[in-house]
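Field: COMPLEX_INPUT
Field: COMPONENT_COUNT = three
Field: RESIDUE_TOTAL = 866
Field: MODE = joint
Values follow.
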Amino acid sequence: MKTRLGTLKTYGIIYLQFIKNCFIAQMEYRTNFILGIAVEIAYLLSKLLYVVVVYKSDLHIGDIPPDGILMFVGTYTMMTGLYSGLFFTNFVRISDYVRTGELDLLMVKPISLQFMVSLRYIDLGMPIPNLAAGITMVSIGWSALGITVTAYHLFLFALYLLSALVITYCLMIIPAILSFWFVNTGGLAGIFYAIWDANNMPMPIYPRLIQRIGVYVLPFLVITNFAPLSVMERLDGGLMLWGALVPILLLVCVRLIWRKAIKNYSSASG
Amino acid sequence: MSIYPKYIRVFKLGVQASMEYRLDFAFSLISAFFPIMIQYYIWTAVYGRGSDQFFGYTYGEMILYTIVAAIVTKIVTTHMDHVIASDIKDGALNKYLVQPASYFGLKLFTLLGQKLFFFTVMLAVLFLVIFYFGGRYAIRIPLVNLVCFVAAMALSLILNFLISYTISAIAFWLSEISYFFEMTGLLVIILSGGVFPIEVFGRTVSSLLSYLPFKYTIYFPSNVINGKLVMSEITEGLLMQIFWIGVMFLVSKLVWRIGFKKYLGLGG
Amino acid sequence: MKEAIKVEQLAKSFTYYTKEVGVINSLKNLIYRKSLTKQAVKDITFSIAKGEMVAFLGPNGAGKTTTLKMLSGILHPTSGSLSVLGFKPYERKKEFKKRFAIVMGQKSQLWADLPAAESILLNRYIYQVEEQTYKRTLDELVELLDVKHVLNVQVRRLSLGERMKMELIAALIHKPELLFLDEPTIGLDVITQQRVREFLTHYNKHHKTTIILTSHYMKDVEDLCKRTLIINDGRLVFDGNLNQVHSAVNETKIVKLKFSHSVEASRLEPFGSVRQTDGFAATLEITKEQIQPISRELLDLFPIEDITIEEKPIEEVIVSLYNRTQPV
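Field: COMPLEX_OUTPUT
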């Protein structure tokens, strides 16, 4: 137990170093930093158009009013921010590591290779607009719906956000890992981004079949639906359990695929 | 045409290059399907609440707009701004300067060559979609609209190229550009009606947009085909496209002339 | 345990696929791909003692880097056994990784946008080096390589030589017992190459670190390593001191002649293989045993002004070794 804690501490220190290093590097290129934020604002605007449509047409999905929908859009926006800040840069680079052989130098380090490869770069600018807008939207929706702010509700919301973060990591890294076998996986990544955007709206808008697939097969819909649904008390016990279980299952799967990819790299590549 | 063999050549090279990327193209077609699906369900939910007109569109017109606009966006988006800007940045422009051909012409014909394959495939897809949905939502599209649509698409491709060409001149002044063009590209698509019809922005903004060229690249062709516009409006729109092509041509020339002065001042 | 590395019958083969162009072929490839096998390393056997400094020499694609990658655990061997510092490298145990380092001349472990000092500090945490030890080691290395003034400069702005020195520091900060260097002097100017070589010799002597390096540059090998392993076409064709290479493979010497008036090339051919001639000068390659009788004969027959007999240059000897695929 003590060594386990020690390892955790080492990884924590190293992750802090990553953050520090990324900060220094990004401050070297301030224009890029600011333009990165500007790009995210443009994307944010295109997503906010959906909010405009929702309110202007007074859209009700089932019995979820526009304010409720705002909470879903807000969660989606927050998750987009977290994804772009914590994972995106890393996942894009994985195929480069394989192609250029830069992976070799990372493999000889005495820490987890998956940790090194998938969490090394943190973008500190890009997530700002999305996080700010997302938190604002969730807060507006939350208070407009009159949901009481209790420790229990906050805990639920935080729990399903954490679960969402892990699911995001696991799903979005898949196209990147596939680049160990296939040269060009950009197309697949594009499809994953497109599916990601399906979270822009609460899932009851989709037909039952799509919901089932999105919750149980390729659990994209868990990412932004479970947190708001849980505080609206619309998640039954089974789904609540599933929402907590999915990230663990996915982590195990991704770990297995990763091992296979590395094995393939060590035995097949030159 | 034989007076311009070099333009024919770059046109052919463009066609070849596009064939290289057909797999990417297939994937991008699949990913284009998802936003359409999302919007389809949104609109279905919106119209499901009783009223039969939102933002001036019937349900059928809106669905058709959504699908057509997504496909039109795929066709007219050029990514030429990235290519041109990197030519400016890494000095590749010098190579073109000494050649007895205009850079503008070369880029335009490369683009047309690149787009020929996609254009044909996408038009085929579009006509299938229209055939299917037209029947389903009882929207009758006369043949003359189809002909006008093809014309509007061709004009819109050229107009969009001119817009990209003008924007890419920013590379003469700005040092970091790849992010910048991602942003402008997205904004242009939004303003052109590539995400939602521009009526969604409200009366003020959409009337403001009527004084700008953007809506003639996606919004206008999409409405030609979904049967929302009558013949006189279509003719007017086509004329506006030609007008804006003329204006943007002059604007791009002007911007590039100023840019060149700066470029030569630095590089020479 | 005196041996740092022990390798027996080590072999590595890759499968790769042929790809033909065209849509039909792409579809075909989805279902069935024709696979080809390339044997990069073929049954190599050697062992290296602790503290030794050894060079792998060979042409491009000979299998040097592949061997190095197997020794460092990046690649799995296809067959054979290997033991490095008592570990099986391909298991990639953490304890093993902490005891060696690898520097590749064409790849960088430093973050280009940061000062090298930051990357080195990161390695301190990754290798869990004690702060005191870290400081001492860093000071020593910086001093030896004379790079104190550029430690806090963004790596992107460093010269190639400075960058290589930083790579060395980053690799040595955890005091590895074993150091692999893949083309460490590639692209460097002559003076910097010299500095790097001096540093490696010094470091090897003082820290008793086992060093294995691959190189194209003959000078690297001649200056640094008493022992050289020459690999060609995946096979080990020579293992020993480079100076012994001559006696091991060289059966010929070079005879250079100068004439007072023109001599036709065809008249020289019976005496040995003519490498070069322009009428007034000629270079012949003659087997060792025949040197004496033939040079006497040449002096009698031709208007010779000057005659010199030389060993073949080491590069050429190596080339002739490369052409072998059987061990000497």
